[in-house]
Design goal:
The protein contains 6 helices and 14 strands. It is elongated. It is an alpha/beta fold. Helix content is 32%, strand content 26%. The protein folds into 2 domains: 103 residues; 166 residues, Rossmann fold.
């Protein structure tokens, strides 16, 4: 009795294991595992390197089945027929795209399925046709590309050889005529005005110093905003009337645009007249009692007839309410013996000194 007991236990264990295996297989193929399967026929129009029975089938990147059968097409040995078994819930359509993808470092191939909208009729067997070259690996694609490049080079070896020879002849000709080419380029540069830009020379407008004793001073605060002017006067260049090209003025520049320069030198002139009651540059620091508004009408060299420097200003004094309490036109000119920068700047200094003295005297009396 004691001898037979272990055999009974062993037999019972083996039987239970067999039943468990059968139960697991039944569960795997029906309710708990992959479930019901559907088979589809796939045709590859070319080689499928490395594809084996049991290889995975992916739909939109998700594994849904495996390859169950592989074989050559009997009517065309270049084609490969395969049968895949996928989960019945997989939405395979007649226009589903089929391909071959190589995964991992080892390049293990899997069948890939993607998309599709057209539903097949239930009575028709569904055959999926892979795109041409779907089984081509990256290595094979590179080989094919290099082979095509080699074919192109071989077919055009003669023209390529001639092109290289022509390039050598051209480069030799350039080397022999380097001096001539440099001369041609230098001539073109001179003709088009190229090369290093000419150095600009800046000239300033001198503030008048001797404005007489300050017999009367400003009795209220005054601001001098930036003068207004037409666009032509918003420049640092010397202006001519009529317009002309005068030697020496190509590199001429005023120290600032004409309106800003006139504003700065007028304020300097007021300060030289009476520093204790000099006007502000702007009313931003507090509203002044009055503003001296200047409009520049002329500021340039007139060459019609006798050459001369001309300055013309329109001045208005307005109170806090914007009411004009006084206005005046100030015009002057200075004879110019020689139309050249230094003489022109000296003439502008003299003309501006007269304008500034007249403007200050009138403003002090009006405010």
């Amino acid at each position: 009795m004691e001898t037979r007991a272990p055999y009974v236990l062993i037999g019972t264990f083996v039987l239970a294991a067999i039943l468990a295996v059968f139960g697991f297989v039944y569960w795997l193929n029906n309710t708990g595992g992959i479930g019901p399967r559907t088979s589809y026929h796939v045709q590859f129009q070319g080689p499928v390197p490395g594809l084996l029975v049991g290889a995975g089938v992916l739909f939109n990147g998700i594994r849904v089945g495996e390859v169950t059968q592989l074989g050559l097409a009997p009517d065309n040995p270049r084609f490969v027929n395969a049968t895949i078994s996928v989960a019945s819930t997989t939405p395979v359509r007649t226009d589903t795209k089929v391909g071959l993808e190589f995964q991992g470092l080892t390049g293990v191939p899997v069948v890939t399925l993607e998309g599709g909208m057209i539903v097949a009729k239930s009575s028709e067997p569904l055959t999926l046709v892979a795109e041409a070259g779907a089984g081509q690996s990256m290595t094979q694609a590179a080989r094919d590309a290099l082979r095509r490049v080699d074919t192109v080079l071989e077919d055009n070896s003669g023209p390529l050889r001639d092109t290289i020879a022509n390039l050598k002849t051209f480069s030799d000709g350039l080397a022999r005529n380097t001096g001539k080419i440099d001369g041609i380029l230098a001539g073109l540069e001179k003709m088009t005005g190229g090369g290093a830009p000419a150095q600009k020379i800046t000239y300033d407008l001198r503030t008048p110093q001797n404005l007489g004793p300050a017999g009367k001073t400003l009795s209220a605060s005054l601001a001098v905003p930036e003068p207004t002017a037409v666009a032509m006067l918003q420049t640092q260049r010397m202006l001519f009337s009529p317009v002309g090209d005068f030697k020496g003025f190509a590199e001429f520049l005023w120290a600032d645009s004409i309106p800003k320069l006139v504003q700065a030198r007028l304020i300097d002139s007021f300060e030289n007249y009476d520093i204790a009651h000099a006007p502000l540059r702007t009313a931003d620091l507090g509203q002044a009692d009055y503003q001296l508004l200047i409009d520049i009408r002329r500021f340039g060299i007139a060459t019609d007839g006798e050459s001369r420097v001309e300055i013309g200003l329109s001045a208005r004094i307005v109170d806090k309410n914007g009411k004009v309490i006084a206005s005046r036109l100030l015009e002057t000119n200075e004879k110019l013996d020689k139309v050249e920068p230094a003489a022109a700047v000296a003439a502008f200094d003299a003309a501006f000194a007269r304008i500034a003295k007249e403007l200050i005297g009138w403003t002090v009396l009006a405010v």
